[in-house]
Amino acid sequence: MKLLEFLKRERKKSASVAKERLQIIVAHQRGQRGQPDYMPLLERELLEVIRRYVQVDDDAIQISLDSEDNCSVLELNVTLPKS
Amino acid sequence: MAKIIVVTSGKGGVGKTTSAAAISTGLALRGKKTVVIDFDVGLRNLDLIMGCERRVVYDLVNVIQGEAGLNQALIRDKRVENLFILPASQTRDKDALTQEGVERILEQLKQDFDFILCDSPAGIERGAQLAMYFADEAIVVTNPEVSSVRDSDRILGLLGSKTRRAEQSLDPVKEHLLITRYNPSRVTSGDMLTLDDIREILSVDLLGLIPESEAVLRASNQGVPVTHDAASDAGQAYSDTVSRLLGEDMPLRFHEVQRRGLLNRMFGGGRR
Ligand SMILES: Nc1ncnc2c1ncn2[C@@H]1O[C@H](COP(=O)(O)OP(=O)(O)O)[C@@H](O)[C@H]1O
Ligand SMILES: [Mg+2]
Predict the structure, then answer these.
(1) What are the domain boundaries of chain B?
(2) Known binding site for ATP: residues of B?
(3) B269: pLDDT confidence band, cut at 50, 70 and 90?
(4) Which residues between 13 and 32 in chain B have a beta carbon less than 8 angstroms from any beta carbon of chain A?
(5) Which is one Gene Ontology cellular component term of this protein (chain B) (predicted)?
(6) How many domains does chain A have?
């Protein structure tokens, strides 16, 4: 019975793990909506440039473009590792 | 005025063609004059599911390129009055579809039909974008599984930006969620996303829930859309879906484990 309980708990987990992962992915995708098509490429190239100087993770960089009336602001956030 | 509805998903193999066939059949059974168009150029399948593969003479691309008239290409369904199929081309390359060509055909069909269903190919490329471009409503087919849900969200993004309604700032495409291949006992045991999880993640109104069902394979073997199998769970679930599409209020069915057998009670049940 112990084993069964264990297996059941493991399985219960897999769907909730899926849900948590999806919530993060979808939030990210929705953040990108309406942005110009070049943004993913820009993000990747910026990451490459930064990596010439500092080793950072794939998700260390966040960019977004906010459009206001007559100008757009490119916001760039980079999390650097503790040195 | 005709309503154009795209059946789409991003991911392949989730049940778009099955759903396009079942829903168009259901609409025609309610007396709505309906045409279902296969946009999967190069990989046509709808004709098989509708059971009219041997009657295909001309296809969508022939009509677009002026090699056949619309009336020559439309196939009248043998079982239901008011139902027509416009098959995709089996051989041509995808570039044969043009936006102007598709628009011309849809405009012509609008004169005659109540509902125009567009069965989208998988992916988010040209074919899928053409299938959704002129849509008034979209049925986003989703399986309770991570990659399907993520792709559905991508498709929702495209519906909100890469459609005629979006580009011309008209009323947005009306989005419906259709969850298919749902397996209540696996949901109960915790290894499948629940209906509410998917709804919450995508935040789109639920149009219907189709259980994983043996009746679907049986239907495709025979080339008879599953809606005709009125005794089956999937047939009834699609029929409910059609009712909701027509604005009726239908309670949800087939989302809970039906019969609780011994095995189920030992391994799956208990928690709800
Ligand atoms: N509710 C269901 N239950 C069982 N099998 C299903 C169900 N819906 C679809 N299928 C099966 O899944 C496969 C893919 O379906 P299809 O409609 O061709 O998907 P798509 O058009 O999205 O690629 C087919 O073999 C079909 O029989
Ligand atoms: Mg298909």
Answers:
(1) 3-248
(2) 11-18
(3) very low
(4) none
(5) cytosol
(6) 1
Asked if residue A76 is part of any domain, the answer here is yes
Find, among B207, B245, B249, B250, the residue nearest to B114 by Cα.
B245
Q: Do A33 and B189 touch (CB under 8 A)?
A: no
Fold of B3-248: Rossmann fold (3.40.50)
CATH number of the domain at A69, please: 3.30.1070.10
- Is A54 within the bounds of a domain? yes
Strands A61-67 and A72-78: antiparallel
B192-205 pLDDT, tens digit each: 999 999 999 999 99
Alpha helices in B92-211 (DSSP H): 99-110, 126-133, 146-159, 164-167, 184-188, 195-202
Chain A residues with CB-CB distance to B189 below 8 A:
8, 11-12
* Partner-chain contact B150 A23, CB within 8 Å: no
How long, in residues, is chain A? 83
- What is this structure's pTM? 0.87
Q: How far is B21 from chain A (nearest CA, A)?
A: 29
Distance B43 CA to ligand 2 centre (A): 8
